[in-house]
Amino acid sequence: MHKLCCILAGLLTPVCMIHTDNYRVLTSCPGLIMKRQFIALIIRDVTKVDCGRTCTEDDSCESFHYDSTSRSCHLNTDFDNGHCSKMEFNSEMIYYFKVKVCMNGGILQSNSRCRCVNGYVGSKCQRLMRDCKEGFAAGFGYGHGEYFIKPASASTPFKVFCRMWFGGRTILQWRKESFSEPFNRSWAEYRDGFGRLGGDQWLGLEKMYHICKPGTVMLGIEIRFENTPNDYKQQQYFNFSLSNEKDGYRMYFSYSEGTGRNAMGDSLTPLKHCAFSTYDQDNDNSEQNCAVRFGSGFWFNACADCNPNGHLDRQKKRRRTSDSDYFWTYDLGDRVPYIASMWLG
Ligand SMILES: [Ca+2]
């Protein structure tokens, strides 16, 4: 039996035996209960054990009061852990607050909330974040780095590189170490991902498919001509999603938007609804093999006005010389970038 159950021996022991949550009496605020505005539900004629069990089973219940004379139970939406500031006098009822058990290495803070670590989220750190955006929103101060995530539809967690700024970004593609990673790859490699997390990489279409499944994900693309902070171009594609592998990971999105005066231009709209192609799997709408012609894997129609997975060679004069170079016709013309990336946010 958990040691906290001993503190409440005879009162809530059966709850402790059934659930992982426990309750404590707040000795620093004697004779006080939560103010009226925090009471969500009043249940009459129940036992203390049933009152505690009901609070345990309801994730929004933070504490409860019990009056053993009238057998009434108040379930509260908030709790007070010792300041007594949210409380008022009541001589009939006794106040109990939930002692949360933080899971997966989470740390119970003095405000009785869990501070999660290692990419876990939720009131008890009970699950992994679904993408980097959710980890950023959880507000634990997660920094840039590798994290395990688990999108709702994915059967197992997988590792991604998160850029924890601007709302949290799950890196899909990174081209920053010249020559280090060839991007003319097979279907299996584009499906499963290649490269090194945090370096030149392609996350993989299957992982992307799961991350994008909610339909509310934004695909961002950015290039730099020089490695300086303000010299960048950026474009965003909203409500981005993919169909499954059997359907060729067709690309869908609702609309495109550039980032103010740094707008990159839209070269993807002509490829909307197109399937992904690689040199060994021709799903394009051309008589030729676009992936072979472009020397990359991408969503091709007949073929495309861009080639973000094309050859990126910084030693050249940075002007496009062939279809297999990195290019983005609208609106970079034939300028070849220095660094490029794509992410899901
Ligand atoms: Ca073809």
Description of the structure:
With 345 residues, this protein is an alpha+beta fold. It has two domains: 3-99, Hepatocyte Growth Factor (3-Layer(bba) Sandwich), CATH 3.50.4; 168-344, Alpha-Beta Complex (Gamma Fibrinogen, Chain A, domain 1). Helix content is 15%, strand content 28%. It contains eight helices and 23 strands. It has helices at residues 3-7, 13-18, 48-57, 132-138, 187-192, 205-212, 290-294, 329-332; strands at 22-25, 32-34, 39-43, 63-67, 72-76, 87-89, 94-99, 107-108, 114-115, 120-121, 127-128, 145-149, 158-163, 169-175, 194-195, 201-202, 217-224, 232-242, 251-252, 255-258, 276-277, 298-299, 339-344. Strands 12, 13, 14, 15, 16, 17, 18, 19, 20 and 23 form a ten-stranded antiparallel beta sheet that branches. A five-stranded antiparallel beta sheet has the order 1-7-4-5-3. Strand 13 and strand 14 form a beta hairpin. The longest helix has 10 residues, at 48-57. The protein is elongated, with a radius of gyration of 27 Å. The two termini are 44 Å apart. The model is unreliable at 1-20 (pLDDT under 50). Calcium ion (CA) binds next to loops.
